[in-house]
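chain below, 140 aa
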Amino acid sequence: MQGMKRKVVYASLFELIAIGLTSSLMMFGAGHDASHAGVAAVASSSVAFVWNFVFNSAFEAWETRQVTRGRDWKRRVAHAIGFEGGLVVMLVPLFAWWLRISLWDALVLDIGLLLFFMVYTYIFSLTFDRIFGLPASAQG
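prediction:
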């Protein structure tokens, strides 16, 4: 699977799973009620969905220009850090506003989510590539 279809399937699966995980983490881990946690999870997943397309398009454009093909652990780590790092910039103000917490508390919350999602992004991408194959940008 390649091109736009791959991006839509990847982002949709990633975010559907992420909504369930994020709302659960915010409810049980941070003590927020279900309605606030659920809306925050859907909003953050919406932002992440758009960011997913933007970031993965840029990453694959960069990847296409690399001499070494494939996705070793270093490239996967770089992908996860880049993707999640961009989300921090966008989501901290959103969490602070919606959950009515300070920017510091939102950053702490987001760092907890970030650490979890760095691992999740790495595992999800690896699993997705094993099931659906590498994108053209990573193929030899």
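The radius of gyration is 16 Å. The chain has one domain: 3-138.
thats it, cya
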